[in-house]
């Protein structure tokens, strides 16, 4: 949809009106037949039609182009009233700068920034509303440090609030201790399994060393027996030599 033509000051050229909504062009596009439309209007039209609403020539969305520069310049120079005129704003701006003005207009209706408040006030009155808003927050005057809403003033009890906070902290602490305990138990189990695995490996290595030691002792005994046998044979040979 375009800009309401009633907002404009002075004469508006027919060529600057949307061929569909008949209001002043907003975010305009132009067809090859040179008819101009608001972007939203022509896109909505082409969902159900395939021709220009003015001369019925065939058009496609890919053929739409931005408005000629001289037409854009004429459009941007048009003067119109702020949309907040009904609330008291008397500003008249060029179409080129109207959006910037309306974003900052003191007569714009904006929502209260306090959570839970649904009131909308003029931007210029926001500070006054915030000062009396029933959803405004402030620190407890009794010094407990809590931030309370004005609607909760009569129900606020420092002792009860602190007791609740203490219970929450205690519960949180218990949860953290349990988490730390579970984590330590998990680590200990992991280390225990690792130690058992290492012990098993070391035990196997010890058994292998014992087996090697046993084989070596057996070899030593065999060598000692062979040596005794050899010595006896030498002694026997010596006796036979003497007899000869």
TrEMBL record:
Pfam families: zf-C3HC4_2 (PF13923), zf-TRAF (PF02176). The keyword Oxidoreductase does not apply. The keyword Zinc-finger applies. Keywords: Coiled coil, Metal-binding, Zinc, Zinc-finger. GO terms for molecular function: zinc ion binding. Residues 192-243 form a coiled coil. GO terms for biological process: regulation of canonical NF-kappaB signal transduction. PROSITE patterns: ZF_RING_1, ZF_RING_2, ZF_TRAF. Residues 18-56 form the RING-type domain. A zinc finger (TRAF-type) spans 101-144. InterPro entries: Znf_RING, Znf_RING/FYVE/PHD, Znf_RING_CS, Znf_TRAF. It comes from the Eukaryota. Residues 101-144 form the TRAF-type domain. This is E3 ubiquitin-protein ligase NRDP1. The lineage of its organism: Eukaryota, Metazoa, Chordata, Craniata, Vertebrata.
């Amino acid at each position: 949809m375009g800009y309401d033509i009633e907002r404009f000051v002075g004469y508006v050229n027919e060529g600057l009106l949307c061929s569909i909504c008949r209001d002043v062009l907003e975010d305009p596009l132009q067809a090859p037949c040179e008819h101009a439309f608001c972007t939203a209007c022509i896109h909505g039209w082409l969902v159900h039609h395939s021709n220009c609403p003015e001369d019925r020539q065939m058009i496609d969305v890919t053929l739409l182009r931005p408005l000629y520069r001289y037409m854009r310049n004429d459009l941007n120079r048009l003067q119109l009233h702020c949309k907040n005129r009904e609330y008291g704003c008397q500003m008249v701006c060029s179409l080129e700068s109207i959006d910037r003005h309306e974003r900052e207009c003191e007569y714009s209706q904006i929502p209260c920034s306090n959570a839970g408040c649904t009131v909308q006030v003029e931007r210029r009155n926001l500070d006054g509303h915030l000062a009396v808003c029933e959803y405004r927050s402030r620190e407890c005057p009794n010094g407990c440090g809590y931030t309370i809403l004005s609607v909760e003033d009569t129900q606020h009890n420092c002792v009860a609030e602190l007791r609740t906070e203490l219970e929450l902290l205690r519960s949180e602490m218990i949860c953290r201790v349990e988490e730390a305990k579970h984590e330590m138990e998990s680590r200990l189990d992991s280390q225990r399994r690792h130690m058992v695995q290492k012990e098993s490996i070391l035990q196997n290595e010890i058994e292998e060393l014992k087996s090697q030691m046993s084989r070596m002792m057996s070899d030593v005994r065999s060598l000692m027996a062979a040596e005794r046998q050899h010595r006896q044979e030498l002694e026997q040979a010596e006796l036979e030599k003497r007899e000869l």
